[in-house]
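Hi R.,

Here are the chain sequences for the assembly we discussed:
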Amino acid sequence: MPVSLEVNGRTYHWPSRPTVVICFDGCDPDYIAAAREAGVVPALDRMMGQGFAAEALAAMPTFTNPNNVSIVCGAPPSVHGVSGNYYLDRATGREIMMVDAAPMRADTILARFSQAGGQVIAVTAKDKLRKALARDLAGVAFSAEKAALCTLAEHGIADVPQLVGRETPDPYSPDLSLFVLDAGIRLIAERRPDIIYLSLSDYVQHKHAPGTPEANAFMQAVDMRLAALLDLGAVVGIVADHGMTDMATPEGGANVVYLGDQLDAEFGPGATRVICPITDPFVRHHGALGGFVRVHLRRNTIGRDEVLTFLRGLPGIDLALPREEACARFDLPEDREGDIAVVGRAGVALGARAIDHDLSQLAGERLRSHGSLAEQPVPFIVSHRLSEAYVQRAKTAPLRNIDIFDFVLNGVEG
Amino acid sequence: MPVSLEVNGRTYHWPSRPTVVICFDGCDPDYIAAAREAGVVPALDRMMGQGFAAEALAAMPTFTNPNNVSIVCGAPPSVHGVSGNYYLDRATGREIMMVDAAPMRADTILARFSQAGGQVIAVTAKDKLRKALARDLAGVAFSAEKAALCTLAEHGIADVPQLVGRETPDPYSPDLSLFVLDAGIRLIAERRPDIIYLSLSDYVQHKHAPGTPEANAFMQAVDMRLAALLDLGAVVGIVADHGMTDMATPEGGANVVYLGDQLDAEFGPGATRVICPITDPFVRHHGALGGFVRVHLRRNTIGRDEVLTFLRGLPGIDLALPREEACARFDLPEDREGDIAVVGRAGVALGARAIDHDLSQLAGERLRSHGSLAEQPVPFIVSHRLSEAYVQRAKTAPLRNIDIFDFVLNGVEG
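And here is the predicted structure of the full complex:
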């Protein structure tokens, strides 16, 4: 094996023991703080005490696909091209949901280590991410959601429910994430992989605030799995793809600004098109409402400046940025950006038109979602002591979740 | 609360922290040894190193119901009356499957502590045991098998799948046991009960030998839960109801002596009746074949001595004992004993007539079962240091699994 590999401009050392990176979907730092307060996460306590713990910034927009891909590439969306779960193809005008690796244009750390002879495994909660994480990966990659359907040819593994000891979990349950962790534990015990990436689901966080019994129960169940990973001698790094914010009014209804309706009223129906890049197959989580949307203008009919001015005057809007400025500020790929990128204020959800969103999916629960700057801070935890150089680095430059592979592979002391 | 309680002639101190007794169904000591060898049970390693670990004897016959009831009563079957999963009612001549507490005639430690104001919880894998464990229990008692059906009125709890974070497990899966442990963890975290009894299923052990990947995976998954229980500050005691022995021939077929057929051939059809007290609703586990059966004689038609002599001459028979002798030797209730108790040799299953047993339930797997003396040795593990008096006691008198509540409530230091 090589001593190290360069991927997307960064060098990564070959791990000497199984190295796990967990993307703890939707894990706002408050979930960890509340669970520690309740005394239900002893393994996390140990990790944070004996290893390294800080907060880092997620990539914008704070959605699942852009951040998972950023983490496994160790690079921002401008490099790999994935800036949403859902986007408008500027060439064809069609709206496209990302369900595979097609929009990706950078190598992943996972793929490169696997091609160099490393044993690499990626397990994700939702199948929508699986193909992206598996891009060029010569190893095992599967989702908990489709665990029973794995084949050696397609996923590099079969009989996953037998491996884990239970059937495929309900995709709308906390067990979707726990199944991912349990699969990781079994695979480390049986195969001692070099690198394993475990990407969870934010089902619990979309439904329950930090410190609630449901949230603490989930944190405790995750913690039990962290203890098992550590007991197996793994180095464990934890980050999140985004935090989570309550986006309901005091009365409990969703606190939404329907930009599509507002723009239609102001500039005429169809003059603009609002794309909600949070949209994914898991609409029960969020009703496709989050803190970041993209506005596309019908060409040659409307001036961008007047739309920017209008948007900036609306309540609930934090930022309305022209494409170039949004891309420069957030490291986003220009060819996949809207004419205008809109960021909501903390606690405000942005939508297209009201008729585009099915709030009945929330089943009367408060809307909790993400996408804006408010969900950028995420945990950044490493199970083992870092070298002095990495401790200093974390103090002097802002940490990002995309730094996690660098820290676990290069920063952990012998 | 009282300082201590007397139950069935023994005194138990009131616990100062949550005290958990786990009945690790079918856990032959070899499962633990092989899992330790494989390095997959770090929490058990710690418990055994820092606390107390020995082997103890299960009650005869080595079946689930007699042993679970013995453990929660802290007394042998002669005291509480339950000597099988299935028995012939001598008064009516009817065969009866034990599905509730009707055959019990002693108080349980659980019931007495709950009546004295303690918060007591019993969780069992299979519902067949639930009513027995819940006898007179003023607290929470439910089974994983029927988790979704719990009501406050009947079980003292509702919404168990929500508590645990996943749906009711498949009764024929390792998860049936893991669900019990996860429920226990959640209940300790949320309610800090005084005493909690967790009774697992031997689904894995009936199918897989110690040290197999499937067995080690299960041991590892259990171990993760033990770590969580210890992290919550609980005192944990582990025993088993019985071990498990391979009862197949070298060619893989079930190694069965059909006593019913043999007795019919020798003494005429119907002169005797063979009762298999392993019989329970979980026939896929064992096809109702185990290492212990009871022979009832049709009254006044046949001499017991000649039947005893005949049985003792058969291959595969370890012991054939007249009722009085069996009851004296094994502390069994005379009114529920057969005229003759028959114990198989290690590795031999005893059946009634071949037509009474559906071996297709084994689906081609090797028969693994229990009931005889070979399955009496079980683990006896306490998570915390014992007082010198209890260490000495364990050295000087044979330990039994029914001693576990005594050890965790009275023997643990400070």
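Chain A has a mean pLDDT of 94. The interface with chain B takes residues 38, 40, 42-43, 162-163, 165-167, 169-170, 173-175, 178, 182, 185-186, 189-190, 213-214, 216-218, 220-221, 223-225, 227-228, 231-232 of chain A (CB under 8 Å).

Let me know if anything looks off.

Best,
T.
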